[in-house]
Amino acid sequence: MKSPIRLLLGLALAAPVLALAHDDATLDAMETPNGGQVRMAGPYHFELVLGDNDVSVYLTDHGDTPVPSDGVGGNVILMSGGRATIAVAPAGDNRLAGQGAFERSPDMKAVVSLTFPDGNTWQARFTPSARVGQGGEAQSAAADAPTDGDDHAHHH
Fold first, then answer.
1. Positive or negative, the Cα torsion across 125, 58, 89, 116?
2. DSSP E strands: which ranges in 23-153?
3. CA separation, residue 156 to residues 23, 30, 39, 42, 57 (Å)
4. Domain presence at residue 117
5. Burial of 35 (0-12, 13-18, 19+ CB in 10 A)
6. In Å, how far are 2, 14, 33, 36, 74 from 142, measured between CA atoms?
7. 80 to 109, 111, 128: CA distances (angstroms)
8. Residue 124's domain is classified under what CATH number?
9. How confident is the chain (156 residues) per 10-residue block, as mean pLDDT?
10. Which of 81, 108, 126, 146 is most buried, with most CB under 10 Å away?
11. What is the distance between the alpha carbons of residues 122 and 112, in angstroms, rounded to a whole number?
12. Contact 133, 49 (CB under 8 A)
């Protein structure tokens, strides 16, 4: 009888730590493969990269393994002064891409909604100005926080 109690106690103690492993500030502090902002969406990480009039979304699992974009479709809604909806489609490997005009502002918000071949739809919310990306302008305060060099130690 002690085993189930220990297991439940262990899970209860670990739950807050596991929940913090993927918060937005932690994700913003991580170096990203394509210089975009990363958010969790169910079993995936979505990395949103904004160009001048184009968007890319890169798919990985929580272990940073690329997930093929074949059969995935959806849209990116950008809200900044107005609202722009850009359809994205597979563009090779783990990337989806689309084009459309949109305004940028410091308070820009984005919602990425993707439907996968299994029929599941996953969404993630972004604040692109919170993380400009590698080689870009300022990043969020969380991105400037010191790290121990192991920024992605939360692998599942």
1. negative
2. 37-41, 44-50, 54-61, 73-80, 82-90, 95-99, 109-115, 121-126
3. 15, 16, 16, 13, 22
4. yes
5. middle
6. 41, 23, 18, 15, 29
7. 7, 12, 11
8. 2.60.40.2480
9. 55 46 76 92 97 96 96 97 96 98 93 98 93 42 35 42
10. 126
11. 8
12. yes
Phi and psi, residue 42, nearest 5°: 60, -125
In a domain, 80, yes or no: yes
Domain membership of residue 64 (yes or no) is yes
Give the domain range for residue 37.
24-132
Rg, the chain, Cα only: 17
Euclidean distance between CA atoms 45 and 52, whole angstroms:
23
- The answer to whether the CB of 48 falls within 8 A of the CB of 76 is yes
SS3 107: coil
Q: How many domains does the chain have?
A: 1
State the CB neighbour count (10 A cutoff) for residue 40. 16
Of 134, 120, 115, 114, which is closest to residue 37 (Cα–Cα)?
134
Is 60 domain-assigned?
A: yes
Place of tokens 């995936």: 44
- Would you say the pTM of this structure is higher than 0.85? no
